[in-house]
Write a structure and sequence with these properties.
This protein is an all-alpha fold and 300 residues long. Helices cover 78% and strands 3% of the residues. The chain is globular and about 50 Å long. The chain crosses the membrane at residues 9-28, 34-57, 69-90, 96-116, 123-143, 149-168, 180-202, 214-235, 247-263, 269-289.
Length: 300
């Protein structure tokens, strides 16, 4: 019963993280229009790092060990550097709905890296439902006419791969270091490297940016770059990396719904039908067995 409660809590926290992440691309699309990709992609890290530095000092958190530090570098490369910068650059030229479809491949990437880094071995049934979810979003991409890759798509694909590795590494590390501590230390490791490039991209025109641009940037810094990761890594540490990662299949459709509400992008009946298929794949997939290497099959 205790295991079941942990798993349910993990799934709920994972869902909270996904909802927060779903606003990331729409907010990025708004912010880069006024601030540029470099300032948005890297500047949000500096702002978030100032917040977590204060929290770490007040709580007098113990510094990570050398082994944990190496894992934190991997988390930083994906969650703090690679994904924010690459998606900010891609969102300068792509609509949110396009980016959302490519990001939908993230659960597969996360599950693959969970096998390599966290020792999780999903069952055949688990992979079946995961592939159904992937095929649904790929079909959706083809239907929208996104069959041909643009150069910005390659940036998004690279972002997905590096973030998948970061998720798996962070989910594993959260079990021993703590969920919010993982992203907090990852931010502090990366932030000093971003000060110069961010400073070089500051312009006087930014002071005249509209309120929606600043709200979008603050959301990216406080929620997307920190609070959402706290919920996400907590969820993966409690519910299992592979299983909780399946909730990410809902993310592209949440992104599209948000972009329809705030950016006036259209939502079709086909989108709703594909979303229903994806929801079903998540519901059934979360009950499939996931094993740990050298252990019996269990529902984590």
């Amino acid at each position: 019963m205790q295991v079941e409660r942990r798993e349910k809590l993990g799934l709920l926290l994972g869902l909270a993280g996904v909802i927060c992440f779903s606003i990331t691309l729409p907010a990025t699309r708004v912010a880069v229009e006024y601030f540029g990709a470099t300032f948005v992609g890297l500047g949000r890290t500096i702002f978030a790092a100032m917040i977590v530095a204060f929290v770490l000092l007040v709580r007098k958190e113990k510094r990570p060990s050398l082994r944990q530090f190496k894992s934190l570098v991997i988390v930083s490369l994906g969650a703090v550097l690679g994904f924010p910068l690459l998606t900010s650059w891609a969102m300068e030229s792509l609509p949110v709905s396009h980016g959302a479809v490519v990001v939908a491949l993230l659960p597969l990437a996360t599950t693959g890296f969970a096998m390599l880094r966290a020792g999780e071995v999903p069952s055949l049934i688990f992979w079946l439902y995961s592939l159904i979810g992937s095929l649904a979003v790929i079909t959706y991409a083809v239907h929208l006419g996104f069959g041909q890759l643009q150069f910005a798509d390659l940036a998004l694909l690279a972002a997905v791969l590096i973030l998948g590795l970061s998720y798996a590494e962070g989910g594993k590390l959260a079990r021993e270091l703590g969920s919010w501590q993982v992203i907090a230390w990852a931010l502090l490791i990366a932030a000093p490297l971003f000060i110069v490039p961010v400073f070089l991209n500051v312009t006087g025109e930014m002071l005249h940016a509209p309120l929606k641009a600043w709200i979008s940037f603050l959301y990216l810094a406080v929620v997307s770059q920190f609070l959402a990761y706290v919920a996400w890594y907590s969820g993966m540490s409690l519910g299992g990396i592979s299983r909780v990662s399946q909730i990410q299949y809902l993310q592209p459709f949440l992104m599209i719904a948000i972009s329809a509400l705030f950016l006036n992008e259209s939502v079709t009946l086909f989108t709703v039908l594909v979303a229903a298929i994806v929801v079903c794949s998540v519901i059934f997939g979360k009950n499939a067995a996931v094993m740990k290497k050298g252990a019996a099959s269990v529902k984590q």
